[in-house]
Amino acid sequence: MALSTWLVTGASSGIGREVAEQLLQRGDRVAAVARRTERLEELIKQYGDQLWTAQLDVTDTKALRAVVDRVFAELGRVDVVFSNAGSGAVGAAEEMEDAAIEQQIALNMTAPIQLARAVIPHLRAQGGGRFIQTSTMGGQITTPGASMYHASKWGLEGFMESVAPEVAPFGIAITMIEPGVVRTDFGAALSIAPAIDAYAVTPVGQIRQYIEATGGNLTADATGDPEKVATAIIDSADVTPAPLRLALGSDSYTAIKSALERRLADLESTKPVAFATDYAK
């Protein structure tokens, strides 16, 4: 397999960091973007010019576009863009603070959309490439207490699914990665909304109790292996045709399959009503 150049956002921790490390170990060139580039110092020392870095808050659209332009100008070609930056928030919809809602939409949905918009002209000009987007099993399922997280991911998946056929004629393929719960620091960085007492005996209250029982880190004993997840993501870049969605983890596969079956059953149950609203022939 020929070595390639990857652009990775959210590269300083979690799945992004694991992907970057595996790529560097096999000899690929990596443009690693992160808010805290000091966390990449060890890799910079080890890999030198093989690793290109830039400090970036991906929610700053103007700065994001500037970094993307620099990457393509300085590296010449990017074969794979791995859009990975994201975060989670917990709380009932009523409990969520305005700032937390805005942050979830800005980071999990708007930033990846703007990244795609920024790189597509470059990928089109070079004759193609891959855009791999970290989503989640939460892009197809829902749980109480994570409404804004799901809203951001469902919106992102709708965008990516719509854009995929738009850019396919240019040799650009899109894959959405849908991991289950993975053993990274994602769970320890959750934004927790201030509690409203009325929700204490609801499913949201139960989730709060579980978070407290785990010491605030929901992913410490997760099913997903970050090393295996990263390997699967890297391998997906060589699969042709590119999978539009890739569930990773038995928990992800099982939960998504169950949700799709329930949704299809609900649709079938309302079929008579749907057809009854057509104009009479």
Automatic annotation (TrEMBL):
Does Oxidoreductase appear among the keywords? yes
Q: Does the keyword Oxidoreductase apply?
A: yes
Organism's domain of life?
Answer: Bacteria
Q: Which Pfam families match?
A: adh_short (PF00106)
Which SUPFAM superfamilies does UniProt cross-reference here? Answer: NAD(P)-binding Rossmann-fold domains
| Gene3D superfamilies named among the record's database cross-references | NAD(P)-binding Rossmann-like Domain
**Which keywords fit this entry according to its UniProt record?**
Oxidoreductase
Similarity comment: Belongs to the short-chain dehydrogenases/reductases (SDR) family.
**Which PANTHER family did the record assign?**
SHORT CHAIN DEHYDROGENASE, SHORT-CHAIN DEHYDROGENASE_REDUCTASE FAMILY PROTEIN
- Name it: SDR family oxidoreductase
Q: Which organism is it from?
A: Streptomyces lanatus
